[in-house]
Amino acid sequence: MGNEETERKLVCLYTAVEIAEAVQRLAGELDQDYAHRFPVLVGVLKGSFIFLADLVRRMKVPLRSIEFLRMSSYGSATVSSGNPQITLGLSSTAVAGRDVVVIEDIVDTGITTSAALTYLQDLQPASVKICTLLDKPSRRQVSVEVSYVGFTVPDKFIVGYGIDFDQEYRQLPHIYTLD
Ligand code: IMP
Ligand code: MG
Q1: In this predicted model, what pLDDT tens digit does every residue of 131-162 receive, in sequence order?
Q2: What span, in angstroms and rounded, lies between the C-alpha atoms of 115 and 69?
Q3: Centroid of ligand 1 to alpha carbon of 131 (angstroms)
Q4: The pTM is what?
Q5: CB-based contact 159:169 (threshold 8 Å)
Q6: What distances in angstroms separate CA 78 from CA 39, 74, 81, 90, 141, one per listed residue?
Q7: Residue 4 Cα, ligand 1 centroid: separation in angstroms?
Q8: Which of 163, 168, 172, 177 to mutate to test the pocket of ligand 1 (most atoms within 8 A of CB)?
Q9: For residue 144, what are the contacts with CB-CB under 8 A and spacing of at least 6?
Q10: How many CB atoms lie within 10 A of CB 122?
Q11: 108 given a catalytic annotation
């Protein structure tokens, strides 16, 4: 079903220019904190793919590698019964002994990010920190320490710049709220 058949309303929250400024700032923070450390960036698929692609092109510190994780979603349930599984994992040596930065599109309840952290900790990295483009702290159910945040967003459903609603809208260059 195409967009034109729905009543959904997109309202721009951050323009591509504002996003680029936030990405540049985050790249600068990571460059400072990870100088001479050859970090491994781990993008959480699918939502982080555009953010990660832009972020790495703004970073100046050399990266050891760029890896990807995919977690099963827990559907739209609002109860904290979610226990996301890893559907695409890392090789056992990808992060061992490395300084890891997890790249997220949005930290909402925190359930997915905290499951990703648990998975990564088992692979014995030297350190793990979280960098998210969007943080929605009002929805948090599981506490997670987020070290790098692009924007703190209100409790609204968000799409664009890699972030979807039912796989739609990822390609939009700006970030929108969806009514
Ligand atoms: P969690 O609730 O923190 O576990 O969020 C898990 C995932 O849900 C995020 O990585 C997104 O992929 C998705 N998600 C959470 N909030 C939104 C939203 O506002 N728009 C689109 N996807 C979202
Ligand atoms: Mg995600």
Answers
A1: 999 999 999 999 999 999 999 999 999 999 99
A2: 11
A3: 14
A4: 0.93
A5: yes
A6: 34, 9, 8, 29, 10
A7: 24
A8: 163
A9: 107, 110, 113, 114, 117, 130
A10: 9
A11: yes
* Residue 30 burial (C-beta neighbours within 10 Å; 0-12, 13-18, 19+): buried
Within 6 A (CB) of ligand 1 lie: 47, 104-113, 157-159, 163
**Between β-strands 148-152 and 127-135, what pairing exists: parallel, antiparallel or unpaired?**
parallel
Give strand pairing partners of 45. Answer: 70
> Among residues 54, 105, 108, 135, which one is catalytic?
108
Rounded to the nearest 10 degrees, what angle do helices 49-58 and 16-33 cross at? 60
Q: How far is the CA of 79 from the centre of ligand 2 (A)?
A: 18
Both tokens assigned to 134: 């969007």
Percent of the chain surpassing pLDDT 70? 92
| Residues in the chain where the model's pLDDT stays below 70 | 1-6, 74-81
Helix (H, G, I), strand (E, B), or coil: what is residue 10? strand
- Residue whose Cα lies nearest atom 8 of ligand 1: it is 108
Atom of ligand 1 nearest to the CA of 104: 10
Position 81 scores a pLDDT of: 53
**CA–CA gap between residue 97 and residue 95 (Å, rounded):** 6
